[in-house]
Design goal:
Strand content: 15-25%
Number of helices: 12
Largest sheet: 6 strands, mixed
Oligomer: single chain
Shape: globular
Strand order of the largest sheet: 5-6-7-8-9-10
């Protein structure tokens, strides 16, 4: 992996920020600080197969897309044998958030790491392993990005891959497990157990498949029943914007809560990245309506930190082997939401 200097990275980030820098969303000071952090991170991680592409401009958009590659992934357009296959398997696609990613997004995650978890970033063994492995790189970035969604995290309280103590009587699981993050807020008064899922499969699935992609692998298995001073949060990054309505999304979450064998999930936090049919990203908190949360929902509403303007401006391009006619027909019927590469 070649070494990238802070000066080089600063110039690339300035290019990638485009109108965001011109309009004051991102300042040169911020981009320079990120470039310095990114330089040290890339040198320390030495990600196999890492390479930075060239900026790509699309029509009249006020900023370019500057992507990087991070080694071998599970996504390859050459896997698709026909247009029917592509709707069943998102692995047979490639593009942003699949086989490539925005350098600006990487710089933001680097900033989150250096400011929220400097005591473990990026030296923690599991974080380092995930960032270096192409098949886990994006999921690991997503885990770190979700830390910025919470206000007032107590310094040095954040633990990664925190093992759940299953010997306690109030835990539902018979075997030990771990959540992605455990940290405290409000002056160490409340602990949050956070399990993060990056649902890339929602990029290329039809509406009736959304439930399988959101909750199909039993994401609650990492949790035990929370104590009075503890909140279990399932955090999901999804890409189904424009494919299903807000009512359909709420129905999926409600069905998930009702189907739980034990009340181990206190909240589902969903952030949906924008796509071709969804002009803006959005975030929502969902809570079970069939049990008393003892004000845990109120605490989460106070602690939850919505996305900023930079997060909302993140976009990408996905490529897939369908003809223009098939693509337009699919988008007109609302079956799938894609951007053309």
């Amino acid at each position: 992996m070649p070494r990238f200097s802070a000066d080089f990275l600063f110039q690339r980030l300035c290019e990638a920020s485009g109108a965001s820098k011109n309009r004051g969303i991102l300042s040169e000071d911020v981009l320079l600080r990120r470039a310095k952090w990114l330089e040290s991170d890339l040198e320390a991680l030495a990600i196999p197969g890492f390479e930075i592409g060239v900026p790509r401009w699309f029509g009249q958009l006020p900023f370019p897309l500057l992507e990087y590659k991070f080694g071998k992934t599970d996504h390859d357009i050459n896997r698709a044998g026909d247009p029917i296959t592509i709707r069943k398997n998102v692995d047979a696609m490639e593009g942003t958030s699949l086989s490539r990613e925005s350098l600006l997004y990487l710089s933001k995650v680097s900033e989150i790491g250096h400011t929220i978890i400097p005591h473990i970033w990026p030296s923690h063994s599991q974080l380092r392993k995930g960032l270096r492995l192409g098949t886990q790189h994006l999921d690991t970035l997503n885990e770190v990005w979700w830390l910025a969604r919470w206000l007032g995290i107590d310094d040095e309280s954040v633990e990664h891959e925190k093992t759940v103590d299953c010997k306690k009587e109030n835990l539902a699981k018979p075997k030990p497990s771990s959540v992605d993050w455990k940290f405290t807020v409000l002056g160490n008064q409340v602990s949050i157990n956070l399990e993060v899922k990056n649902r890339k499969g929602t990029i290329g699935c039809t509406p009736f498949k959304k439930r399988a992609y959101l909750f199909g692998d039993n994401p609650e298995k990492s949790f035990g029943i929370s104590r009075h001073d503890e909140i279990n949060v399932l955090a999901i990054t999804a890409y189904h914007g424009g494919s299903i309505s807000s009512d359909e999304e709420a129905s999926l979450v409600r069905s998930y809560f009702e189907g739980l064998e034990a009340p181990v999930v206190d909240a589902v936090a969903i952030i949906v990245r924008c796509g071709s049919n969804c002009r803006i990203s959005y975030e929502k908190l969902y809570f079970p309506s069939n049990r008393d949360l003892a004000n845990k929902d109120s605490i989460l509403r106070i602690a939850f930190n919505p996305m900023d303007r930079e997060d909302h401006s993140k976009f990408g391009m996905v490529s897939f082997p369908m003809s223009i006619e098939e693509t337009l027909k699919s988008m007109r019927t609302g079956a799938d939401g894609f951007c053309l590469d």
